[in-house]
Amino acid sequence: MKTTFLPRRLAALAAALALTAALTGCGASGGGSADAVASTESMSAAAQDGASGGGVPHLDPGNATAENARKVIYNADVTLESTDFDAAQQAVLEAVETHGGYLSHSDLSGSAEDQDRFLHLTVRVPATEYRSLLTALGNSANLLNASESADDITADYIDVQARLTALEAQRDRLNELADQAQTTADLLEIESQLSDVQYQIESYTQQQRWMDDQVDYSTVEVSLSEVKALTPETPAGFLEQAGRAFLDGWDAFSLFLKGLVLSVIYLWPVLLIAAVILVVIWKTGPARRARRQARRMQAAPYPAPNAPAPNANAAARNAPDPNGSAAPKPDAQKENKPGPKY
């Protein structure tokens, strides 16, 4: 009779499978890094060849082919201005629609009366139409600034792709082990490992889809400002700068007055209550002052009605005699009286 040790076989097969997956991931990562370095050197050489040939290299994903295609994310930031805001806005939107793009975000502020409208757009456009869209945006209004960037994610993309391949092979092997499991404990262990592998596969798949979306569709940030006069290409002279400063100062003063009036309107309940309090204080002020004065007069002492003045006797004693002789002082009369005889 032949005895089969299935748990030992399962454990050995699982260990071998994990080792194979680890080696595959490391090899793919190393290979991806080597390919990235080689591709980077090729791009640098191509840029040098273009510069030596008299051309200016620029970020153009439309030049990529199936053989030398790399995973590059292209981004741009375009700043525009126009005196006719409505026409420029319409031209920008038509350019986006013509080149197969769509708006990911839109923000409009300001008013037509003040001529200070500002539009910010986040545009996603196919990478093959990236360069054409930038050209069309530059022609839709006065171009002030245009900046571009490119992020090469080829090495990361290859690494994620290799990990997905290894994880999918590991998932297939675990499914085979699950079919061969004879005990519940072995089946639960395999299902636990299979759940972890499936979670990693979904995570790497989502990351790969994000990379594909960023590579296939470039992002362009567009800013459009409404101005009264376009920015000149040459620097303005002193007189022109002084005139602009005067106009800007008047605009700032007008905005200040407008803000002040609006603030007063917003605070009208508080101002009304304060005005009522001031009127009440102003109306009741004289009456309160009169009451205080009356209380002070009541608190002061008054002399008796029939009492002589405090200095009346002294005035009588010091008054001169009608006959012409001065009245003697009381103290002097006391001094002239003879004393008692003993």
What topology does this entry show?
Elements: H1 6-52, E1 72-82, H2 85-98, E2 102-109, E3 118-126, H3 130-140, E4 142-152, H4 154-180, H5 184-216, E5 217-226, H6 238-266, H7 268-299, H8 312-318, H9 330-336
Parallel strand pairs: 1-5
Antiparallel strand pairs: 1-4, 2-3, 3-5
Brief characterization of the structure:
By secondary structure, the protein is of the alpha+beta class.
Supply the number of helical segments. Answer: 9
Helix content: 55-70%
CA gyration radius, whole angstroms:
50 Å
- What order do the SSEs take from the amino end to the carboxyl end, as H and E? HEHEEHEHHEHHHH
- Could you name the ranges where pLDDT drops below 50 across 5 or more consecutive residues? 1-10, 23-57
Structural class: alpha+beta
Explain what this protein looks like in three dimensions.
This protein is α+β, with helices and mostly antiparallel strands and about 350 residues long. The chain is about 60% helix and about 15% strand. The protein has a five-stranded mixed sheet. It is flat, with a radius of gyration of 50 Å. The N terminus is likely disordered.
